């Protein structure tokens, strides 16, 4: 059974810092991995999708990496801004999306 | 182009009642998946509908059932509501041939008292 874990559960940093969110999964037989953003009480917005054959994906200030062999992914956010405050969820695709519990990120002005 | 829409936005029900949640997929999408997200948790997969049939199901009891209509819209029904069913229910739609590309709606917040 695939399990996804995200560490830390919550993170608070001052504006302008670079930061890394971590995601680990137990079964390396994944088709892809996605990072989502969720604002309080809202739906999910897909940020980055990494296919199993890829090592990383970049979009603006966001960079996600994937290491299937170790069952890990990281989301790197550069020059954080208060608008980045949200919960970040990682999910692996194995015939369905299996989500981690999320990291609640707060960027302090 | 409208994205995925869900109704209602919020709902309050009493234990033992039944509830129906609705989802309209993004234009051109033919697959609909439903997820339950308890407070502070990640979403949990309930089931997926394609061609008006349940194609896959997560670890949820039979009290959770669904339907997909010819226009690809979908309903989630929950019978005999329990307090533990209180959650944000998310619907996601996918384009033909790309089930892993899931576009999420804003969700329906269900509170069971």
What are the main properties of this structure?
heterodimer; A: 109 residues; mainly beta; six-stranded mixed sheet; five-stranded antiparallel sheet; B: 113 residues; seven-stranded mixed sheet; four-stranded antiparallel sheet
Description of the structure:
The complex is a heterodimer of chains A (109) and B (113). Chain A has 109 residues and is mainly β. Helix content of chain A is 0%, strand content 59%. In chain A, strand 6 (56-59) and strand 7 form a beta hairpin. Chain A is globular and about 40 Å long. The termini of chain A are far apart. Chain B has 113 residues and is an all-beta fold. Helix content of chain B is 0%, strand content 50%. Chain B has no helices and eleven strands. The radius of gyration of chain B is 13 Å and the shape is globular. The relative contact order of chain B is 0.33. The mean pLDDT of chain B is 96. Chain A binds chain B through residues 4, 6, 31-32, 36, 41-46, 49, 89, 91, 93, 95-102, and chain B through 4, 33, 35, 40-45, 48, 56, 58, 88, 90, 92, 100-107, 109.
